Amino acid sequence: MRRLLFAVTTDLNYDQRMQRICTSLAEHGYRVRLVGREWPTSQPLTPQPYEQHRLRCWFTKGKLFYLEYNLRLILYLLGQRGFAAYGAADLDAALPVWLRARLGGLPFVYDAHELFTEVPEVVARPAVQRVWRWVERFIVPRATLAYTVGPALARLFEQRYGRSFGTVRNISRLQNESTAAAGGEGYILYQGALNAGRGLEALLEAMPQVPARLVICGEGDLSAGLRQRAGELGLLQSGQVEFRGFVLPQELRRVTQGARVGISVLDNLGLSYYYSLANKFFDYLHAGVPQLISPFPEYLALNEQYEVAEVVPELTPAALAAALNRLLRDEPARYDVLARNCRQARQALNWQREEQELLRLYAALWPATSFPVSA
Question: Torsion angle of alpha carbons 295, 297, 302, 308, nearest 10°?
């Protein structure tokens, strides 16, 4: 049985991409261990069909966190034996994983969940960006296998580094369950990180003009400020906006099925957002829930093919309110078309199909006649 070890800096309970990837590999003959980070607020690990391990850190953010986590990770990895390959999700865990693979003469896998050097938090700090660009230039050419979340981002990596890059999209698993495509409880849903560039500030400003409730699932850098602004607008007191914090994936599916419209918009704050393809896009689609999207390449390409979303040309309160009101109140026939298209599209866009590419990529790591294992 091939043993694989992956490392991330996320809380393993909420990393749906790694849960899908590790589960699929575990179900197809691999023995997988996923290493992540324990946060002060972390809940007990949810059972999974693969091994899980958390590293506890003193620091929770910034340079000291990344330094501490990478030191703890390399010390942990140096004590591991018997693995056939080591993989890292994004640059913030890549250097220790590459070093461990290198020391063992084993394949190193790089899974780019985003264009890390172009996320807003990095772009806003040129000195920090230079460091991460150096890491990217070092890591990407040295990966035995590299893949990312969407074809547009894969092409960018290929142009930048002259090497092949696979694509494994963050598509939801097709479930044998009914959905709330007819509207559920009728709320607007945002799921994901509460960080800059997600249109959340404008969304709150739009809500007094929208006859619906907004449910927000997730936390992030803007958590405190968004709650404060919602309070100032009277949205918390009236119950029109509800912050639910972190929600485990199984519960999040139930919440998504109860929504009427999903929010999947982004500001163009860098190439990472511009070329993104978030798992929430597919989560809404699988729940039969039409959504608002920004006019970025991956979302436009899928929407042109399947027509499951309303495109918002700019992230202003007026534009968001107008788009939401069209779907919720003014154009019920349009809403029904999008919801029906969601239900049809999920038959083609689902993890059961997407995992076939994942399995093909990993099968190609080793010749059929040989199987490397670290000492």
Answer: -10
Q: Which of 155, 160, 120 is nearest to 139 (CA)?
A: 160
Q: Which of 71, 98, 72 is nearest to 85 (CA)?
A: 98
**What is the tens place of the pLDDT at every residue in 216-266?**
999 999 999 999 999 999 999 999 999 999 999 999 999 999 999 999 999
* Window from 74-78, 185-189, 290-294, 324-328 with minimum mean pLDDT: 185-189
What distance in Å separates the CA atoms of residue 225 and residue 204, rounded to the nearest whole number? 11
User: What radius of gyration, in Å, describes the C-alpha atoms of the chain?
Assistant: 21
Q: 163 with 145: CB under 8 angstroms? A: no
Count CA atoms within 13 Å of residue 163 on its CB side. 14
For 232, the 3-state DSSP assignment is: helix
Residues 6+ apart with CB under 8 A from 331: none
For residues 237 and 230, the answer to whether their CB atoms sit within 8 Å is no
Contact predicate 128/109, CB 8 Å: no
Task: Give the model's pLDDT for residue 97.
Answer: 98
User: How far is 119 from 236, CA to CA, in rounded Å?
Assistant: 30
Contact between residue 207 and residue 328 where contact means Cβ atoms under 8 Å apart: no
Cα–Cα–Cα angle for 365, 371, 372, rounded to 5 degrees: 90
Cβ proximity of 89 and 168 under 8 Å: no
% pLDDT > 70, the chain: 95
Quote the CA–CA distance of 1 and 127 in Å, as a whole number: 44
pTM of the model: 0.92
Beta-bridge mates of residue 86? 5, 108
Q: Which residue has the tokens 């997407």?
A: 354
Task: Return all residues near 57 (Cβ < 8 A) that are at least 6 apart.
Answer: 37, 38, 65, 68, 69, 72
Distances (CA, A) of 21 to 49, 63, 88, 300: 11, 29, 12, 25
Rounded-to-integer distance, Cα 351 and Cα 354, Å: 5
Compute the distance between CA of residue 151 and CA of residue 160 in angstroms, rounded to an integer: 14
Q: To 5 degrees, how large is the angle CA 226–CA 232–CA 234?
A: 105
